[in-house]
Amino acid sequence: MKSKKTVEHTGKYTPYAREELMQKIQMRMSERRFLHVLGVEETAIALAARNGVSLEKASIAALVHDYAKERPNDEMELIIKTHGFDPELLEYGNNIWHGIVGAYLVEKELGITDEEILQAVRGHTTGAKEMSALDKVIYVADYIEPGRKFPGVDEARIIAMENLDEAVKYETKHTLQHLIEQEAKIYPKTIDTYNVWVSGK
Ligand code: DGI
Ligand code: FE
Ligand code: FE
């Protein structure tokens, strides 16, 4: 299943062979989320190919992007308190933590030290004022992977295949709209992303 659109892992960015890495990721999440992760990988590779990004980095960043999504809150809170993370994070929940703290766990537990990959994981939920091409690939692939179903996703997919920056703009605008409708607490970095990628373009 889903073995067609994967890329070879050379061993440059992870101490584990692909199968072993996949197993470690799969162990940490539900079947449904693992399928999401595989969908993000497939989409990230396609976007990377169109945008001159390393396919291997896109593959690995996609595979690990939600590694910490199912960690218990108390474990995440303890890491935030003891590892120098901004205490303001404690006012949010795992939706905001799993990328930022997740990058730390990906480095510590999966042995991935490549700063570009870790940054893509860190910013995949909120985006950032400045985003590398790899950051954009992961941010957008997470939003449009084949398993996503919400109004507007088809439009987002079409835009993403044409212009990655426009896809970042579309996603940021619609995510913020959705959060406001839900009266959710907006993480300041999400607003920073909006100011640069939506209002500023
Ligand atoms: O982890 P995924 O579900 O694949 O996707 P994600 O990491 O992009 O987003 C996780 C959730 O976080 C999604 O429901 C949107 C939400 N989110 C994004 N920015 C903010 C946010 N939630 C709050 N409360 N505040 C934000 O600024
Ligand atoms: Fe996520
Ligand atoms: Fe995701």
Keywords, please?
201 residues; mainly alpha; 0% strand; globular; binds 2'-deoxyguanosine-5'-diphosphate; binds fe (iii) ion
Short structural description:
This protein has 201 residues and is mostly helical. The protein contains ten helices and no strands. The longest helix has 20 residues, at 31-50.
Report on the architecture of this protein.
- The protein has 201 residues and is an all-alpha fold.
- It has a single domain (18-197), classed as Hypothetical protein af1432 (Orthogonal Bundle), CATH 1.10.3210.
- It contains ten helices and no strands.
- The mean pLDDT is 96.
- Bound molecules: 2'-deoxyguanosine-5'-diphosphate and fe (iii) ion (2 copies).
- 2'-deoxyguanosine-5'-diphosphate binds at residues 36, 66, 69, 95-96, 124-126, 142, 175, 179, 184-187, 190.
Write the layout of secondary structure elements.
Layout: H1 18-26, H2 31-50, H3 55-64, H4 73-82, H5 94-110, H6 115-122, H7 133-144, H8 153-162, H9 164-181, H10 188-199
Helix pairs in contact: 2-3, 2-7, 3-6, 3-7, 4-5, 5-6, 6-7, 7-9, 8-9, 9-10
This protein binds 2'-deoxyguanosine-5'-diphosphate and fe (iii) ion (2 copies).
Ligands bound to this protein structure = 2'-deoxyguanosine-5'-diphosphate, fe (iii) ion
Helix content: 55-70%
Tally the beta strands. Answer: 0
Element-level helix/strand string: HHHHHHHHHH
CATH topology: Hypothetical protein af1432
Largest sheet: none
How many whole angstroms does the radius of gyration measure? 16 Å
In CATH, what is the homologous superfamily?
Hypothetical protein af1432
* Low-confidence segments: none
Q: Into how many domains do the coordinates divide?
A: 1
- Identify the overall geometry: globular
Portion of residues in beta strands equals under 5%
Q: Any idea of the CATH class?
A: Mainly Alpha
Note the total helix count: 10
